[in-house]
Amino acid sequence: MNKELLEKSVTELAQLIKSKSVSPVEVTENMLQYIESSNPQTNAYVAITADSALKAAKHAENEIMQGKYKGTFHGVPIALKDNIYFANEVTTMCSKIHRDFVSKEDATVTARLREAGAVFTGKLNMHEYAWGIDNNSPHFGAVHNPWNPEKVPGGSSGGSGAAVASHSTYSSLGTDTAGSIRIPSSACGIVGLKPTHGRVSKYGVYPLAWTLDHVGPMSKTVADAAAMLQVIAGFDTKDPTSAPVPVVDYSASLNEGVKGLRIGINEAYFFNQVDSRVERIIRERLDDLEKQGAILSTVSIPALQYAEWAELAISLSEASTIHHEDLLKRPDDFGDDIRFLFEWGELFSSVDYLQAQQVRRALKQQFTQVLREVDVLVAPTLPFLVPNIGDNLVDINGQKTDFIQNCIRFTGPSNLTGLPALSVPAGISEGLPVGLQIIGRAFDEATLLKAAYAIEAMQPLAGHKPVLAP
Questions:
Q1: Which of 156, 171, 317, 414 is labelled catalytic?
Q2: Is residue 259 part of a domain?
Q3: pTM over 0.85, yes/no
Q4: Residue 185 a catalytic site member
Q5: Does 156 sit behind a cis peptide bond, omega within 30 degrees of 0 on the bond before it?
Q6: Residue 467 forms part of a structural domain
Q7: Is 21 noted as a catalytic residue in this protein?
Q8: In terms of Cα–Cα distance, which of 257, 196, 203, 253 is closest to 223?
């Protein structure tokens, strides 16, 4: 097994494949060997598709040898979250009810990656139906955080976070309804981007809440996230929420720096009740950005005080509608935590739901106004260090408080507004990574990526690596 090859980023690996220094078959065989040895430790994969991966790798190799190189992902092994459909393959949503579900066609994002030449090595573990944040599945088992196997990896895209961090995939896709890309990205020390609502098609992705769901990259580096977004972004007639907005070159401005970048800080909400270990690291990165020429200013978004309630009212109502029939006919086939949430969702009234939509409208208006004054907002991704598997409480400055509520507190507003948001590693505390969140204007993912690239260049992980890695 070639450990150095496993640790490459997608963009680094792509140069080796393009120059024929390594072959897609060699890379895929190496990855499959590593998955076999590493997955018992992380439980990141729920399905490993070795035969089809090797077939795709051989096809990619033949194309490249014939001079038909397609780009960055050609011949690169990747795995996706198990609520993203693959034609004629099982997609379980890590549930009992859909354990044998087979889609007739690829999700749009799957099809676009397949067309780009990606090699799919399998499907990744997730919280059941994407509604949870510890990724402790009653049906497929807990995913273990590669930085500390006793810790949760975050969720619901915990398998994607753990697989990328442990190098058992070169990159991945997650889904995000209240933070499910950014939460595991923060917990696992990787880059996670929730694009603008409508930027990436959701067709062929099992929904959690129709109006809040997003699909986006989870990757080792900012450059990899930009490259992945380049492939999957763009209008799709199959998705009624898809936006016909032109796709820019997301890699072009990564290294432009942050001089003159206007960064907004919302102290009242995004720095309220944050563990001191996390806050110190985020403040240090903000200081570093300011030293590089960024301009920091304090902003006010009053409607944020209602954001947590609105996020829950909308997400629970929509999720419970999707699962209503199964909740009536086979409630015991849901995990206990999921069944409770879906039952809770049925208690919201139409008045609750529509009032939450009014909060949402106010948030959109206020964020839009603030983002005329600044280019991005910066906040912690999570206000705490992730807890042990099985814990329902987290520690914030010595006080025990609810895990789920505090997990989505800083991530949920970007789902309500639909604005792009990215988590990038900002530092290490007590052996665990801390994520910094960047929120920006609609369809301006390029600015988020540029700011994240500047933070990544600071080498905030300081050479620390996950214990479950090659």
A1: 156
A2: yes
A3: yes
A4: no
A5: yes
A6: no
A7: no
A8: 253
